[in-house]
């Protein structure tokens, strides 16, 4: 018996044994995967699978860099699992044979109401880095917003764009104003159409324990003196439309709307900056309760834990950025999936169960 047991032990240690971190069990079988090697793409049928594939393939340090979040990761987990409290009320008697997913974002047409959010250092996963994401976004007809902390330069990313491909660019509020102005100018000169200005880590350093195991954070240089006044002054540093990203309260959504920004981007940065921040769903519910008029003033974009089309639908139903012209009723969070131009708008509403 003993040699057989020994043989089995060797066999099992070669296969990937991956902690799936409490993600929903949809039957993913990793037993034939080899640690350090990308698994067959056909094995991956949802975004959770892709996370597990990344965990299998990347070095522990690179996985930690992408996966980590602040402190006890309460916000990171809430982003993923707050959807459990949502019920989508779908109406049955609607012709949905010709659904159109197209939408406009800041007036530019895209084929779907979701986009690729800014995320630092794509080159830690693949040598093609951000250029791969530019190509993927172009092929899918969706918006890509590269990060200012990308592996590739602003110019390299811009050069990868397809004909007529519209991209926006993310920026941080650096305390070094020379650097800030220089980057704003380069972003404008290379053809990006809008600036997504991340305002959630001015004066705050995300404490990410998982990442700390591998290296000390180098995410510094952010301006600790940044206020709503500086935000309006920053509008003078570029002619691009500015979209504040990382807004986490209804109060700040309202401030941005009143300052005349064309859109505001509700986000807790994937839980990476501060822990115990609310989720986009909770913030949107507060906006409906306190300042429902802002849905008619500006576009509202949102992210955090969006892994399924049902999550996109939930945020659309709560009035997030699908369309910027539509009236959103206070007591009925309806939103056409397809925009005003669709011949067959499909309505859903969302309610929360606490
Ligand atoms: C690895 C990683 C890097 C990120 N880098 C940036 C960044 O450079 N600038 C930024 O504004 N947001 C950054 N974010 C936050 C994302 O834009 C987005 O708000 C967040 O990932 C959404 O939450 P989710 O990861 O649960 O989908 C990063 C997120 C991740 C996971
Ligand atoms: C500020 O940024 C500029 C442009 O990137 C750079 O040349 C300069 O060294 C920076 N200053 C400091 C104090 O880091
Ligand atoms: C922006 O610049 C204009 C023209 O120089 C100036 O009048 C205005 O006060 C500036 N706005 C802010 C908020 O600094």
Automatic annotation (TrEMBL):
Source species, domain of life: Eukaryota
Keyword Ion transport recorded: no
Pfam families: FMN_dh
Entry-linked InterPro entries: Aldolase_TIM, Alpha-hydoxy_acid_DH_FMN, FMN-dep_DH, FMN_HAD
Protein family: Belongs to the FMN-dependent alpha-hydroxy acid dehydrogenase family.
Residue numbers binding FMN: 118-120, 147, 170, 198, 245, 267, 303-307
UniProt name for this protein: FMN hydroxy acid dehydrogenase domain-containing protein
Presence of keyword Transcription: no
GO molecular function: FMN binding; oxidoreductase activity
Residues at which glyoxylate binds: 65, 172, 208, 269, 272
Alphabetical keyword list: Flavoprotein, FMN, Oxidoreductase, Signal
Signal peptide: 1-15
Active site: 269 (proton acceptor)
Domain FMN hydroxy acid dehydrogenase intervals: 39-354
Obligatory cofactor(s): FMN
